Amino acid sequence: MPIPVHFEICVDDAQRAIKFYTSVFRWTIEESGDEGYWLINTDESEEEPGLTGGLMERLDPLDSTVMTFQVPSLDGFAKKIATAGGKVVTTKLTIPGIGYSQYCLDSEGNLFAIMEYNEEA
Predict the structure, then answer these.
(1) Which residue among 12, 51, 53, 88 is buried most deeply as judged by most CB within 10 Å?
(2) Angle ∠(78,110,42) on CA atoms, nearest 5
(3) What is the rounded distance in angstroms from the CA atom of residue 39 to the CA atom of residue 48?
(4) pLDDT tens for residues 11-60?
(5) What domains lie within the chain, and their CATH numbers?
(6) SS3 20
(7) 1: three-class secondary structure by DSSP
(8) pTM of the entire structure?
(9) Angle at 78 between CA 60 and CA 88, to 5 degrees
(10) How far is CA 114 from CA 27, 31, 74, 117, in A?
(11) What would you report as the CA-atom Rg of the chain, rounded to the nearest whole angstrom?
């Protein structure tokens, strides 16, 4: 059964959001190699890290928080999403050394992502 494995919080002011989340939740937030994207570590333990996250610049006024669900087959779930009344809204995104991801809309227009882990990506 697919489970949430990552979340993204869309923000208008990254530095203000970083200050907020580090002071409230004590998360570690560091800029990634992608401009406009910051990685969130929700757990200090390196043995079993908590749910991972990211801060990203808001691209649309309706953008809020995006949940990412781990799936065994990106292509298989993209088909299931379309069949069930959802929509795949991006091409397959390769995250080198991690896997593949796609952004989708559910039947109500809510944005979410699916992720297939594959270290060979």
Answers:
(1) 53
(2) 90
(3) 17
(4) 888 899 999 888 878 888 999 876 789 999 887 666 666 688 999 888 77
(5) 1-57 (3.10.180.10), 71-121 (3.10.180.10)
(6) helix
(7) coil
(8) 0.73
(9) 25
(10) 24, 22, 7, 10
(11) 15
